[in-house]
Design brief:
Strand content: under 5%
Helix content: over 70%
Shape: globular
Structural class: mainly alpha
Number of strands: 2
Radius of gyration: 22 Å
Order of helices and strands: HHHHHHHHHEEHHHHHHHHH
Number of helices: 18
Strand order of the largest sheet: 1-2
């Protein structure tokens, strides 16, 4: 096979759309991570004197806005294109940070967090739809490497944001007000980058990106009344979305497994492993750093080998390493367990997103991706609630054991989905 043909096989990671979305995802997650992890919890409790319960409610509003508006934002993107959907939404992040600067009570801070969530809601539907369209216009239809690249941007932004903010606060003598202004600058920058996005992506070639408004079917669609357009969308989704019903609980469980761990990792490290803040940072680097570094290589292997092997190995490795982590009390073994969890997620994330991309029909991709991501995001709502209950009533190791059990369930569901798909296609 010639070099030119090989280049056409997979998505070009240096294409304008991928690079622009990489920058947008990194900056958005940088702002969110800085606010939700480093700034707002301390600012709301220590500076404004707001109770921890109210802080938790405000954060829940952020996630609610993000999760509820994913499907609508995907639907809007199908009609007005990537550029204006993303630009309009990302400007809301600028509004939200501005509100946080001047808000002095729980109500306005909760409203600001809700607006922040709405502003970030189109991010993943637009990203996944764009990558799916680019993959559909390549010979292989593979999207693993591109999925790995955007996941890397997300994890890097989420991790680097709090580190930079804490450093500036501790060593640079910056105030909360000045840090909020820095984040407003980042929000303005990300909205400016969104203006560079294409309006639409061509259906026949990976580089056929339409920067203008477009004609033909798109123009006709814009003239359709909103209610008629919505009815047509629902009908098209019902008739074209031919997926196994087992995919829907799998979507929920994939995020639920993460949600079970998220609120108790820090508590477990402090109460059971007795780590110092510096040691805990090293634990995060051991897990998150390995995941970030391995995402793109794993994604490229997914494109070559397929998703099945990676998901099977990833789910089982995650289950085993989480169960192992729940039982260790010696720090070197904890580092080994965390590193194994990081490797397992590097295998799962690009493969899972590429697996979902193959389930998305060509019509109404944005709406379907929004639906998938909303179902998946609901697991992140339920996970922390159940995790806290398990921690308080059963034991400190229980949330991690529950997460390991969920990974085993996902392994079984994935096998059944693949088996049924092969049987439907007559290949197995």
């Amino acid at each position: 096979m010639s070099g030119k043909v090989a280049q056409r096989m997979h998505i070009n990671l240096a294409s304008p759309f991928i690079l622009e979305m990489w920058v947008i995802i990194f900056l958005v997650e940088f702002v969110k991570g800085s606010l939700l992890v480093a700034l707002l919890p301390v600012y709301m409790e220590n500076i404004l004197g707001i109770s921890v319960t109210v802080v938790g409610f405000a954060f829940a509003m952020q996630y609610l806005g993000d999760n509820l508006f994913r499907s609508p934002s995907g639907w809007v993107m199908e009609r007005i294109g990537y550029r204006w959907t993303m630009t309009g939404a990302l400007l809301l992040i600028l509004v939200a940070v501005g509100m946080i600067i001047y808000a002095k009570d729980a109500v306005w801070l909760s409203v600001a967090c809700l607006i922040l969530g709405i502003g970030t809601s189109p991010l993943w539907p637009c990203t996944m739809t764009g990558i799916t369209e680019l993959a559909g216009s390549t010979e292989s239809g593979s999207s693993g490497a591109a999925m790995g690249a955007v996941e890397m941007a997300s994890l890097a932004g989420t991790g680097i944001g709090p580190i930079v903010v804490n450093f500036l606060m501790d060593h640079g003598g910056q105030s909360y007000h000045s840090m909020f202004l820095v984040l407003m600058g980042c929000a303005a920058a990300v909205a400016a980058v969104a203006l560079l996005l294409p309006s639409r992506i061509g259906a026949h070639a990976p580089h056929a990106i339409v920067r203008g408004g477009g004609e033909g079917p798109v123009a006709v669609r814009r003239k359709t009344k909103p209610l008629e357009s919505l009815k047509r969308t629902l009908h098209q989704v019902r008739t074209t979305l031919k997926v196994s019903r087992l995919l829907f609980p799998a979507l929920f469980l994939q995020a639920f497994a993460i949600g079970l761990m998220t609120p108790v990792v820090t508590l477990f490290a402090r109460s059971e492993l007795h780590v110092t803040p510096n040691q805990f940072s090293l634990l995060l680097i051991a897990g998150g750093g390995i995941t970030v570094l391995a995402l793109i290589p794993a994604g490229k292997l997914v494109d070559r080998i397929g998703t099945t092997v990676f998901l099977n190995i990833g789910f089982l490795l995650a289950a085993g390493s989480l169960a192992f982590f729940s039982q260790v009390r010696w720090l070197p073994l904890a580092f080994c367990a965390v590193a194994l969890v990081g490797i397992s997620y590097a295998l799962i994330l690009p493969a899972w997103n590429a697996f979902l991309a193959k389930q998305v029909p060509k019509g109404e991709r944005g709406t379907v991706w929004g639906l998938f991501l909303t179902l998946q995001g609901s697991g992140m709502v339920a996970g922390p609630v159940i995790s806290g209950k398990l921690w308080d009533t059963v034991g400190h190791s229980t949330p991690f054991l529950a997460s390991a059990f969920v990974m085993v369930l996902l392994f079984g569901l994935h096998l059944l989905i693949v088996h049924r798909t092969k049987r439907k296609l007559g290949t197995g």
